[in-house]
Amino acid sequence: MCDKELLVGYVYDELEAAERKAFQQHLASCRECRDEAHALRGTRSHLAAWQVPAGPSLQPIVADVSSASRFRIGSWWALAAAAALVLAAASAIANLQIQTVDGGVVIRTGWSQPATIQQASVGAAEPTAISREELAALLQRVNQLETALATRSTMPVANVSHPAVSSEDVLRRARQLIADSESRQQQALAVRLMQGMREMQAAHTSDLMRIERATNQLQGAFNDEVLRSREMEKQFYRLVSSTQLQR
Amino acid sequence: MTSDEELVARSRGGDLDSFNQLVLRWERPIYALAYRVVGREEEARDIAQETFLRAFRALKGFKGQAKFSSWLYRITLNLCRDWMRRERRTPIAQTPEGVDLVELAGEATPWESIEDLVSRKELGRAVAKAMSVLPEEQRTAIILKEYQGLTFQEIADLLDCPLSTVKTRLYQGLTVLRRQLEQAGVESHFESERPRAVVRNFRSAGGD
Model-level pTM? Predict the structure, then answer.
């Protein structure tokens, strides 16, 4: 019985030079091996025809992020993600960063100290403006999360205490903001979600990977024009400072 | 182009972008591997996503003792194995019924006639079906060799088995495939130029 290991090595071109030469000499005198090697090479040549379908890319499209089904309502992660999206979209914030560190969350905002607080009137709301109550509620939520991390308490279950804003409202608003924007090119979402999950969060991780990829993709896909609404910016700064004063 | 090792090093340092680049680079091969092993698109996608998820979480423990791609493959294969055990399923040859000529027309390469393309599709189906007949070990070895392009040694390292075992599985797998394809009416014409498969009586020979 001829050496099948050599045969298969030959068929796959994995023989060393010396081995190959020896085997070729064997082939010259062995009909059985010659036929088999030829047949198996023929078989191999057909295998390439088995193609893989294009399949959905692992990178979710923007619509996935906005789709409510992707968020587990009640998950604080989802709310943090929604909050970040709304915050970033609604105001000219750059470098809003959400990072997970050792299973916790750190949220940093990149704006510098507001130069002056102007008593600008809220004025007629622009189509994409969100109400100050909503902004306040989100900011409060962000503060809660930061506090929770700082004190290393257990992660708060997401139930926004503000009566006017529910989780569903926030998400709906986030989606609406993204959809209603005058020009998608004007949006720049500098949001990042990182993962360093604890095991108890394992159930949410695949959703989160989708969120993370979506936001990274958004960041890359859109150019760096930011919503430059001065009124909204001032409005937001005002909320920030007034919220701070309330502490 | 930045090497895998470099991207891994940056990812371990906290650079998310680099990890994303790794995902972009490897998502297709990983998906292809999972798809061929389990035979289902949805499951393959879930397994591929889970692979990168686990890789991300385990980055700290990856010190470059193996190739990054091998490490990914190992995760994927474990996930495939777990899934198949859980579902007690053997993969089906998931191929669509019939051939949509309009869709095919878009896929034809310049030197191919529609007849060629149809027969290529039918050949693909025949191969998928033949592969589903193989026992898991042989099928995995064939997939790693033919579609991921690993060497015998790389496969042995990946599957934690001796070199000779890999060769045996490949030999047996190829032999079964040869028989299956012959029964399906695929003749083995091996030519050194572009090999052509002649699929005779595919449907009447018990295919589909």
Answer: 0.55
